[in-house]
């Protein structure tokens, strides 16, 4: 079999159009920059008023927008053609990649269609679809979330085992036919092979599941810790605020990267410190939810007791399964009752992310509470005789959701970068893990000769973090309009 081309049968027709669009885009950008220094003109009308007219810079910007739309249209044709054109050789590398992501495209279309149709009923999330920047960021983020779910839950998209090497495929370029491909094997390495002859595309896709499994959940746990401690610190103040702020400042006094590296080093892991941190930190979601619903249904004892009992039983079991890990100082759950079998490296990284991010979230929540507690509706709740936790959780916290949601999105991006950095330096996760940082580190050793093993995961990491930042910007703009 011959190696795949990038664009398949569509290339001879669309490649010249794409190149022309790129050339026009570059020239129009340069022209727009140069012509922006030319003063704008105005035409005097019969009534003495001035009417603005298009300047050369305006025309350059219109050409730039047209070139962008042309490039986008060509890319969409490449992606769509990969789904409908039969035969991998006819699809090309881009078309074959698009066909592998078909479940993701379907999920994205359904998500966007439903979200736009019901956006007026979806609060701040629905308003995100009034913001083009936010929509673009949301699309990038959901692309990787759906990819991770497809890989982790259904084993879709991947073409080969991300941990298995194939003889003769070491450092092969994208589109190389698979040596000795059987009847049930995918016949190509779409993005080439790495220095251990593993499929770069499958490792990139499988790496998304590692990132999505850690970054959002770890950030959520950090927010649970920060909110649970930041609410009383800002609302009650006094010695409690002084003590908790001192602890937060003590942790933040260490450089974040250095503290992260310290927590995941093998010497610290062997002492059992991450396991004991997990015992404390993983308790906060239970405390938060119990206090939340106890305050909400305090005047309805039957409903309150039922909800609290359900939370304690279900989350308590999950909590015990999380903190009990074989081979660590905290290991007590029988195998038949243990709900989770989390690899030790992932648990250590998870705990480290929560521990490092929680103090920053605490300070943000504390500052918001100190501002919001002076509002009239808080005074009205105090006049009604509401308890402190009800006021904190059901009056103050909902009104602080905008900045917290924005920070949550940004913090997931920071966590993703931290995970990539740790993997790059070989800390925390196993050395054969397909996470993006480890894959970039493995590929950078021959970067000048074979750049594709490092470029693919680097672009994946870039796109996810970019999407999170764009979505955070969109949410910030929409929350300011409330």
Automatic annotation (TrEMBL):
Subcellular location(s) per record? Cell membrane
Chief subcellular site? membrane
The lineage's top-level taxon is Bacteria
- Tell me which residues make up the ABC transmembrane type-1 domain: 208-472
Which keywords annotate this record? Cell membrane, Membrane, Transmembrane, Transmembrane helix, Transport
How would you describe this protein's topology in the membrane? Multi-pass membrane protein
Q: Which GO terms describe its cellular component?
A: plasma membrane
Which InterPro entries does the record match to this protein? BP-dependent_transpt_permease, MetI-like, MetI-like_sf
Q: Which Gene3D superfamilies match?
A: MetI-like
List, in alphabetical order, the GO biological process terms annotated in this UniProt record.
transmembrane transport
Question: Which regions span the lipid bilayer?
Answer: 17-38, 59-85, 97-118, 138-158, 210-231, 243-264, 276-295, 307-324, 344-365, 408-429, 449-472
Report the sequence similarity comment from the record: Belongs to the binding-protein-dependent transport system permease family.
The name of this protein is ABC transporter permease subunit
According to its UniProt entry, this protein's organism is Pseudooceanicola pacificus
């Amino acid at each position: 079999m011959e190696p795949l081309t990038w664009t398949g049968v569509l290339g001879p027709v669309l490649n010249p159009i794409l190149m022309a669009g790129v050339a026009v885009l570059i020239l129009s950008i340069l022209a727009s920059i140069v012509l922006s220094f030319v003063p704008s003109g105005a035409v005097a009308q019969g009534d003495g008023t001035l009417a603005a007219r298009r300047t050369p810079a305006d025309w350059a910007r219109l050409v730039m927008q047209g070139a962008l739309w042309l490039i986008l249209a060509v890319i969409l044709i490449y992606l769509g053609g990969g789904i409908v054109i039969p035969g991998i050789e006819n699809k090309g590398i881009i078309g074959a990649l698009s066909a592998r992501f078909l479940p993701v495209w379907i999920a994205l279309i359904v998500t966007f269609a439903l979200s736009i149709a019901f956006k007026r009923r979806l609060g701040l999330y629905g308003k995100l679809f009034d913001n083009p920047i936010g929509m673009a960021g949301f699309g990038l983020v959901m692309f990787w979330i759906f990819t991770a779910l497809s890989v982790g839950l259904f084993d879709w998209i991947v073409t080969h085992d991300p941990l298995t090497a194939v003889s003769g495929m070491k450092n092969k370029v994208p589109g190389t036919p698979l040596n000795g491909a059987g009847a049930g094997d995918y016949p190509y390495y779409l993005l080439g092979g790495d220095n251990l002859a593993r499929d770069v595309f499958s490792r990139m896709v499988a790496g998304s599941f590692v990132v999505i499994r850690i970054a959002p959940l770890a950030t959520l746990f950090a927010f649970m810790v920060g909110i649970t401690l930041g609410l009383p610190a800002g609302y009650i103040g006094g010695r409690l605020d002084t003590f908790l702020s001192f602890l937060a400042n003590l942790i933040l006094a260490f450089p974040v990267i250095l503290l992260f590296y310290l927590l995941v080093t093998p010497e610290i892991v062997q002492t059992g410190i991450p396991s004991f941190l997990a015992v404390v930190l993983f308790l906060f979601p239970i405390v938060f939810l119990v206090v939340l619903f106890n305050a909400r249904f305090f005047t309805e004892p039957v409903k309150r007791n039922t909800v609290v009992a359900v939370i304690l039983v279900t989350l308590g079991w999950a909590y015990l399964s999380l903190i009990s890990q074989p081979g660590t100082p905290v290991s007590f759950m029988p195998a038949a009752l243990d709900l989770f079998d989390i690899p030790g490296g992932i648990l250590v990284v998870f705990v480290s992310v929560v521990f490092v991010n929680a103090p920053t979230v605490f300070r943000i929540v504390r500052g918001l509470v100190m501002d919001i507690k002076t509002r009239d509706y808080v005074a009205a709740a105090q006049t009604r005789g509401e308890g402190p936790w009800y006021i904190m959780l059901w009056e103050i916290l909902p009104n602080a959701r905008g900045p917290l949601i924005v920070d949550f999105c940004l913090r997931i991006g920071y966590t993703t970068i931290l995970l990539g950095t740790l993997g790059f330096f070989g800390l925390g996760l196993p050395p054969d893990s397909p996470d993006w940082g480890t894959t970039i580190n493995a590929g950078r050793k021959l970067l000048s000769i074979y750049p594709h093993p490092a470029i693919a995961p680097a672009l994946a990491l870039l796109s996810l973090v970019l999407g999170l930042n764009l979505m955070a910007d969109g949410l910030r703009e929409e929350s300011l309009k409330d």
